[in-house]
Design brief:
Length: about 400
């Protein structure tokens, strides 16, 4: 007989799967696990490992804690991995006494890590990033020529994924170190597009320090240094920098600069398909999503712009999960300001459905949830449950 906890886990997975009108075979394909594994878990014959649980939760668009009650929460797993990430980069400039890994292997694993970042699967990144950072640094130090340039590029990409975890989970000092390592690696690639991507990510340090005017100046310098938009990759790189500059200009209260950068982002976005990706996805939909970001960054007096965008456009489902959820979180903030708590709660639930880990760690999502709960003045079960999940009570 299976024990009750294992049986309950299987029942929850089966219930979530049926609610999404998925067959067991479809869930297996979406989660990249075998069909016999799914069947065994659902009937309670086996308990999923952490990696399998993450895969199934991602395929079902829920947080793992909704499947395994009392399991180690995502934030606990991430924080447990933070010291290992820090240790992996402590001596980044000192060659390790270890053989380098084949570049094609690193490339494959880095591609998976990037997809986890786009899908907001932070626990998986945190657990795999330390070893991949170590391997990428070792390979960089033990290769030459074009292989070294390639290794530097892979290191920059891995570092960015690790930084996504550190920044979103509040490890600001580690995030700043990872950003500097990314910039160091990008400089060694001799690739101006990689350097532009590093400048985009560096903006996090300005957000964290609330040094918005300085961040805007740094981004404008990066835009001037980026390659001319003559080709897909160069156009995407420059467009992403303009998007970022528009948001931080909004945080700085510079509405004119925000409007100018947003207009440039829209113009460049219209030149590309949405799936243009060189470290940061860019295209017309990404530029449109940032209209809401900029409006919310500028403050309450601009909330009608955010609401107007959402009335006629919402992110397509093929946009990265993190960016989709960010749109709904920012919209929820505008809806709270507009005195529409019910709409804000609906937006927050959409954000959680798309990217639960991103939503739970987003300070604006937590703030909006607390405000909605206060305004509602009710103990509705669904709202209270959501507030408890996000840490707003």
């Amino acid at each position: 007989m299976p024990n009750p906890s294992t049986r309950e886990v299987g029942q929850r997975i089966a219930t979530l799967r049926r609610a999404r009108r998925m067959t067991q075979a479809q869930l297996a394909r979406a989660a990249f696990v075998s069909l016999p594994t799914v069947k065994a878990i659902e009937r309670g014959a086996r308990s999923p490992s952490d990696d399998t649980l993450d895969s199934l939760a991602a395929a079902l668009s829920v947080d793992p804690s909704r499947i395994v009650t009392g399991s180690t929460r995502t934030d606990s797993r991430v924080h447990a991995a933070i010291p290992a990430i820090s240790a992996a980069i402590a001596a980044y400039d000192i060659p390790a006494d270890a053989p380098p890994r084949p570049l094609h292997e690193l490339d494959e694993e880095t591609t998976v890590l990037v997809q986890w970042r786009l899908d907001a699967q932070y626990a998986r990144i945190a657990e795999h990033a330390p070893q991949l950072l170590t391997d990428a640094l070792t390979t960089l130090h033990h290769t030459t020529g074009t292989d070294q340039l390639r290794a530097a590029h892979l290191l920059a990409v891995v570092t960015r994924s690790a930084d996504a975890v550190a920044f979103k989970f509040g490890a600001r000092d580690l995030s700043a170190r990872l950003v500097e390592l990314m910039r160091w690696a990008a400089d060694q690639t001799e690739d101006r597009i990689a350097q532009a991507t590093a400048a985009y990510v560096r903006t996090e340090t300005f957000f964290a320090a609330r040094a918005h005017a300085q961040g805007l100046a740094a981004l404008e310098q990066a835009i001037d240094a980026s390659p001319s938009p003559r080709g897909r990759s160069a156009t995407a790189a420059r467009g992403a920098l303009h998007m970022r500059a528009a948001v931080i200009a909004g945080r700085a209260g510079d509405a004119d600069a925000a409007a100018l950068h947003l207009a440039d982002a829209r113009r460049l976005g219209d030149m590309l398909p949405e799936d243009a990706y060189d470290g940061t996805q860019f295209g017309p939909d990404s530029a449109r999503a940032h209209e809401v970001s900029v409006a919310v960054s500028l403050g309450r007096e601009h909330l009608q712009k955010a609401l107007a965008v959402a009335e006629e456009w919402t992110p397509p489902t093929d946009m990265p999960a993190e960016r989709q959820s960010g749109f709904w979180i920012e919209l929820a903030r505008a809806q709270v300001w507009a005195g529409r708590p019910d709409d804000a709660f609906e937006s927050l639930k959409v954000a959680r459905h798309i990217a639960p880990q991103h939503t739970r760690e987003h300070p604006w999502a937590r703030e909006a949830t607390a405000t909605v709960r206060r305004l509602k003045r009710a103990d509705a079960e669904s709202l209270t449950s959501f507030a408890d999940w996000i840490g707003a009570i």
